[in-house]
Structure to design on (619 residues):
């Protein structure tokens, strides 16, 4: 276990240790309680391994929701010099552009409560959920290529959404530079039937209400108010993104030697950003990211239709924002007083640009970028806005969720799905799941406390609390 | 013919799950690993071996060969949408493995998926030969 020095109550450092090949420090954002949980798995060792990657700029960062991943820790941020650094598919993850999207309804909790059951059943019917579920949007090869190029815009153009939706997504729901030709036939084959599907694992749609508002001005900018019903959905690029990652980890693993790169964990396979293979990966990653945005767009559209069916055409669901938490983005950041051109790997971390940033939609420019942090199933989620210190310390990044503490196997041990579903329903949360395991693996006790995670980034000045959301229903794979 | 002594058990990981395989030979290890992976996703008892599907993988060393081979199985399940009942390894050398899956096209009703496996990883991957037995540990991102 690496040695941690405390910088202050919320910041901790593992100093650069050249004997471990570290090129820079690791900085961990956590409270004492969270730190104890973090130290139980290998996530800090993984953050140390990230610190060995060529071209890393600033420290290897660990967010308070950090937990053990594959190569990179989940909840890790690493910026690489765009000219001289490397790109690592493991720093993005298998689920490229896994992310969350929050939509605000025109309805209050009291209006939805009497028909909640009908609403949930309607959504469960209309949005394909679960492992192996096929979508309702058949795509031929040419259409799939267009989706990979245009992302959420393709869906809106085809009628799966409203024009204003794309404005309220990171990158307007389309990462530039996507090249479908860099995506293998296998990846396309995996993804093609899955457009507009949620998938399984920790992916979900939750119907929630705004329990409390903590920043009135930011909440107003997002049209959020207490007791309002909102929809939070979490999913990514499905099999297409998984296969893109698999393909490039394999190819880069074989090519690292040629580039004179050695890594302490093969899952960190990487090549120079400026190499042909590095550029090919970034073009394929952008394509997969666009597939994910298209997915979340289609799912929002189906959910809207379900709301309209139950509550009439007047019931609105307006997109608040859509953020990705598995991505690598080219950004400009000031490091030690110098502006640097970097590729920011966010693996289980969310972009959190503060007020005034030019990449934000006009309506959020004065309050900061909405950051959506889902908690564990049936507990609470948070809406934050990016704050100034994120630009100074974390390459404009914060946490992405609660962060697992128990393995899926451990979470299920001794638990009965029907009983757990009843327990959640008694606590006021309706649950519909495509599988029993889906419920048990995602039980709240398998995760850290999201309130504690959010408190760290709030107190550290990386982001500000805007609203706490409580679920009334969960639809999951 | 005696049945090969193959076994597998589930290992724990905070994010996901791992599998430990024991087998008497390297080809058996690769076949057993592939079948164990399938059984995490589908119920093999419900699959009929009606057709044969070719599987092939290459890798720069034994670790890469196993990971790439198993990721071919992930693709077979999720991309080619095949439900394999049994998997055989016909040829295995340092750089290449060739095998066959015996199964049928996946039918969502007949072969419900238990979970989706995103990929097989290098995380804590270990392949070793001990006292005439081969053993492999590998972890899945699910």
């Amino acid at each position: 276990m690496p040695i941690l020095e405390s910088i202050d109550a919320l910041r901790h450092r593992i100093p650069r240790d050249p004997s471990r090949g570290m090129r820079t420090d690791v900085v961990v954002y956590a409270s004492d309680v969270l730190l104890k949980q973090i130290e139980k798995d290998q996530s800090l060792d993984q953050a140390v391994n990230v610190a060995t990657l060529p071209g890393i700029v600033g420290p290897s960062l660990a967010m308070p929701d950090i937990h053990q991943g594959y190569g990179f820790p989940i909840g890790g941020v690493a910026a690489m010099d765009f000219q001289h650094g490397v790109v690592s598919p493991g720093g993005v993850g298998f689920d490229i552009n896994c992310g969350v999207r929050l939509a605000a309804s025109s309805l209050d909790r009291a209006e939805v409560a009497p028909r909640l059951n009908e609403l949930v059943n309607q959504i469960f019917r209309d949005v394909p959920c679960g492992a192996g579920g096929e979508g309702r949007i058949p795509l031929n090869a040419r259409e799939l290529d267009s989706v990979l190029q245009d992302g959420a815009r393709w869906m809106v153009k085809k009628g799966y959404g409203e024009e204003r939706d794309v404005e309220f997504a990171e990158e307007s729901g389309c990462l530039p530079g996507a090249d479908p030709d860099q995506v293998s036939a296998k990846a396309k084959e995996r993804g093609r039937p899955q457009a507009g599907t949620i998938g399984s694992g920790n992916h979900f749609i939750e119907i929630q209400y705004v329990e409390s508002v903590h920043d009135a001005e930011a909440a107003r900018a997002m049209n959020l108010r207490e007791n309002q019903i909102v929809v939070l959905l979490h999913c990514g690029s499905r099999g297409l993104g998984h296969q893109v990652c698999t393909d490039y980890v394999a190819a880069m693993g074989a090519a690292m030697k040629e580039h004179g790169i050695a890594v302490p964990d093969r899952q960190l396979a990487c090549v120079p950003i400026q190499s042909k293979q590095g550029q090919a990966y970034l073009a394929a990653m952008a394509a997969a990211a666009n597939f994910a945005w298209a997915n979340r767009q289609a799912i929002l559209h189906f959910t809207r239709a379900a709301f309209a069916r139950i509550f009439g055409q007047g019931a609105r669901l307006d997109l608040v924002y859509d953020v990705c938490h598995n991505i690598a983005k080219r950004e400009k950041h000031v490091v030690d007083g110098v502006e640097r051109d970097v590729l920011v790997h966010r693996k289980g971390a969310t972009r959190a640009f503060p007020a005034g940033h030019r990449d934000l939609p006009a309506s959020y420019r004065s309050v900061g970028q909405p950051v959506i942090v889902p908690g564990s199933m049936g507990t609470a989620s948070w809406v934050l806005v990016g704050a100034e210190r994120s630009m100074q310390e974390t390459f404009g990044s914060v946490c992405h969720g609660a962060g697992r503490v128990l393995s899926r196997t451990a979470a299920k041990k001794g638990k009965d799905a029907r009983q757990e579903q009843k327990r959640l329903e008694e606590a006021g949360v309706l649950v519909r799941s495509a599988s029993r395991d889906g419920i048990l693996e995602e039980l709240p006790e398998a995760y850290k406390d999201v309130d504690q995670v959010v408190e760290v980034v709030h107190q550290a000045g990386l982001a500000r609390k805007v609203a706490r959301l409580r679920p009334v229903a969960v639809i999951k794979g | 013919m005696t049945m090969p002594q193959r076994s597998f058990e589930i290992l724990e990981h905070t994010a996901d799950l791992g599998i430990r395989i024991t087998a008497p030979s390297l080809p058996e290890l690769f076949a057993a690993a592939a079948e164990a992976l399938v059984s995490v996703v589908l119920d093999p008892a419900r699959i009929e071996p009606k057709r044969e599907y070719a599987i092939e993988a290459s890798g720069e060393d034994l670790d890469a060969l196993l990971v790439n081979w198993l990721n071919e199985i992930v693709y077979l399940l999720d991309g080619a949408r095949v439900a394999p009942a049994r998997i055989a390894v016909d040829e295995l050398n340092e750089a290449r493995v060739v095998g066959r899956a015996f199964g049928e096209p996946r039918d969502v009703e007949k072969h419900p998926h238990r979970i989706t496996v995103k990929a097989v990883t290098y995380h804590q991957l270990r392949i070793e030969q001990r006292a005439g037995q081969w053993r492999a540990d590998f972890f899945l991102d699910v």
